[in-house]
Amino acid sequence: MTTPAGPSSTRAPHPRAVVGALAFAGMCASFMQTILIPLQAELPELLSASRDDTAWVITITMLASAICTPISGRLGDMFGKRRVALVLMALLVLGSLVAALSPTVTPLIIGRGLQGLGMGVIPLGISILHDLLDSDRLGSAVALVSATLGVGGALGLPISAYVSEHYDWHALFWMASALGALALLLMWRLVPPSTLRTGGRIDTVGVIGLSVGLTGILLAISRGNEWGWGAPPTLVFLIGGAVVLVLWGWYELRVADPLVDLRVSARAPVLMTNLASIAMGFALFAAQIAFPQLLELPVRAGGLGLPLLQASFILMPSGLAMLLMSPVAGRVERRWGPKPLLVLGAAIIAVGYAIAVLTDLATWHILTINLMIGIGIGLGYAAMPTLIMRAVPASETGAANGLNTLMRGLGTATASAVIATVLAQSVIEVGGESQPDASGFQTAFILGLVAAAVCTALAALIPRSRSSAAEH
Q1: For burial by CB atoms within 10 Å, which of 67, 89, 120, 177 has the most?
Q2: Which stretches are transmembrane (predicted)?
Q3: Which residues contact 68 (CB under 8 A, 6 or more apart)?
Q4: Where does 37-118 have alpha helices with state H?
């Protein structure tokens, strides 16, 4: 039974302090997704392990974050969003410490899995803002915290590249531990507890079913390029995961207190927003996969020949653009609503990709295009939580935002696999080494353009919905 609505906190810290604490926590969590990217090729040597084993160091973080976000959102609705967010951030700190002390691959995988759980802080933070802030402040605050899904990675890449270039790789995780501990302290001190809780019991079968189904599908997507898309392991995980999710959905429709209320998720505004989220997630990550490789590719192979650190600084302004868009997004949302904001963001991304397709790219072109993508993502990611929260009961905002974050993650995971496959299959021999050729990058940009165009169309079709507050 839902706790009656009323004052949602027992103390009243300054709203900017709450927003700042939640945004910092979100950036810390998303930073963990890219912290090892500069070292990915060197991990087998650093850990004295096979490439298959070290691939799990990257994969496990994605799996943990994908599984955690909808589950933690539901737990936040039931037992208190701040409480669950603090637990997740504490697990992130623990995972960072485990990774910092890891001499071999196995404890590093465990630590990275714990780090991935921290991503649940972002949808919980958005729901906390919905509970605490008035409508005048809510749009910009939600925009800022939602944008941290992309900001952490964009800003974290050059930091990770610099640290890994000048220090032992364990220093990355000591830094992550310190950042996570600071975020935990800020949340504990500045974010008040919410009294809007649903109570109830944990849907254990739902948790297990969702975890198993998502693991199967995401493993197939993330490892299909290595295993082979037609290989038995890929097909087993893909088909098995899909079957489990179908059975999970059948069960969720029949249980009294489901992990995810699929009837609410099937409402047109929620469904269309989640589908648009998948497309925008794909558009975001298509650039994040293709542009770094093009910037670092040798000039004789058709690239720009930049070292990793310089390439990271070319890409970093995209993250800054996402941050700077939050107050703009808030003003646009208050004046015209979240739907035009999502349409505008997706259209800007599409224009950026169109330029990439039609232009012989130089460094400044990539800087400009990636900046446009950052602006579009900042606007689009600001709109999605508001669209979701307007269409669901106030008591389900945590679970609904968690599911929306999962949809964005599904889009980025799919983009990572598809773009990697495209670039791997379009290669030329340069100096005895296989390198991606121009046609592979062109295909990647076309796919990004298609994803952005699909997102624009889906956003335009989202119907109007009454505020959840009005419904309940």
Answers
A1: 120
A2: 17-39, 54-72, 84-103, 109-129, 141-163, 169-190, 202-221, 227-251, 271-291, 311-329, 341-358, 364-384, 405-428, 440-462
A3: 88, 116, 117, 119, 120
A4: 43-47, 51-79, 81-100, 105-117
Q: What pLDDT, in 10s, does the model give residues 371-404?
A: 999 999 989 988 888 898 888 887 777 778 888 8
DSSP state of 120: G
Tokens of 254: 């029949």
In the block, tokens 């999605």 appear at 384
d(CA 465, CA 53): 47
- Contact at 8 Å (CB) between 277 and 407? yes
Length of the chain (residues): 472
**Which secondary-structure segment (H or E) carries 292?**
helix 268-296
Residues 239-263 as b or e (16 or more Cβ within 10 Å = b)? ebbeebbeebbeebeeeeebbbbee
Q: What is the DSSP string of 323-341?
A: HHHHHHHHHHHHHH-HHHH
> CB neighbours of 332 closer than 8 A, spacing ≥ 6?
340, 341, 344, 379
Query: Please, which residues have CB within 8 angstroms of residue 134's CB and are 6 or more apart in sequence?
Result: none
Q: Cα(60)–Cα(58) distance, rounded to whole angstroms?
A: 6
SS3 at position 213? helix
**Closest C-alpha to 261, from 380, 393, 155:** 393
Q: For the chain, how big is the Rg over CA atoms in Å?
A: 21
Q: Are 342 and 459 in contact (CB under 8 A)?
A: yes
| Cβ neighbour number for residue 443 with a 10 Å cutoff | 18
Rounded CA-CA distance 59/36 in Å is: 11
* CA gap 262, 253 in Å, rounded: 7
255 with 205: CB under 8 angstroms? yes
Mean pLDDT, rounded, for 107-134: 89
Q: Exposed (0-12), middle (13-18) or buried (19+): which is 311, by Cβ within 10 Å?
A: buried
Q: Does position 93 have pLDDT exceeding 60, yes or no?
A: yes
Q: What is the pLDDT of residue 232?
A: 92
Q: Are 378 and 322 in contact (CB under 8 A)?
A: yes
Helices (H) and strands (E) in the chain, counts: 18, 2
